[in-house]
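Bumping with the actual sequence this time:
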Amino acid sequence: MTTSREIRLAARPVGEPGPEHFALSTTEVPEPAEGQILVRNTWMSVDPYMRGRMNDGPSYVPPFEIGAALDGSAIGEVIASRAAGVPVGATVSHFLGWREYAVLDAAAATVVDTALAPARAYLGALGATGLTAYAALTRTAPVREGDVVFVSAAAGAVGSVAGQLARRLGASRVIGSAGGPQKTRALLDGFGYDAAIDYRAGDLPAQLAQAAPEGIDVYLDAVGGDHLQAAIGAVRGGGRIALVGAVSGYNSTTPAPGPDNLLVAAAREVTLRGMLVTNHFDLFPEWIGKAAGWLAEGTLRTRETVVEGIEQAPEALLGVLRGANTGKMLVRLGGE
């Protein structure tokens, strides 16, 4: 049998999680049954939504179980197969991350084309994070020619793609918010933003008003709280807001305060619409067909923050929640 190290949930955090809420364990991996594959994971994703899964409560995705391995998106190489459609040597994406080896039904894996893009790209720009930006700005809060677009968490995995995509969709001006001078510089120099707001500098509404003196038409919200309030205050009539996440409240022990200016949104006939990327997977072929070409020609620019080894995965997740990453946060488990 193959042995595999995995990260398990040791306890449920109250407020901000720490290393004590995770445990590194070694387990034996069984041989695959008929219709299954054995995958050696090479890359895994850590994403802000995983914080919510550490809680025990109803949500759109089941909570992690105490004492059990966490899961999430991963890429790996098939090293044993009892499924005719997935041969040994294939590179696949699947949802049994947070472990070095995984046995899963072949139907739960997707073979990816590493000639089209590097394997890890299918966790970032060609994965659910890139798709989130695409679905948000084409379906949930569609960008129209000449729009002014505002993106929060703009230096993160979704936001770094969203700014560039907004421009391709016809935006006349693209504004991003990020924390600190290094990230705001990355927005301007690396991700094609016209203006960058450092929310840590304070007075977010005033900074947004300076960057968009005539207001905004579209807002991609990954933060909630003060960012959502500022966006509602700046949005023009008929504006669209995509509610993708609310990372500012993920560690809160009491309900986060909501915006107190919703009447403004009503008076301006603004649309605020929630979005779950899992309801837009039908767009994956369309998105990959476009984004892979942009990646290859270098017109879609991405960055990654990479940590090494399964034992560092908890710290990678804690880092994402603190905003330690620029671009996609990845854990390399082996391979290129």
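The tokens above came from a reply further down the thread. The chain has two domains: 2-124+302-332, 130-278.
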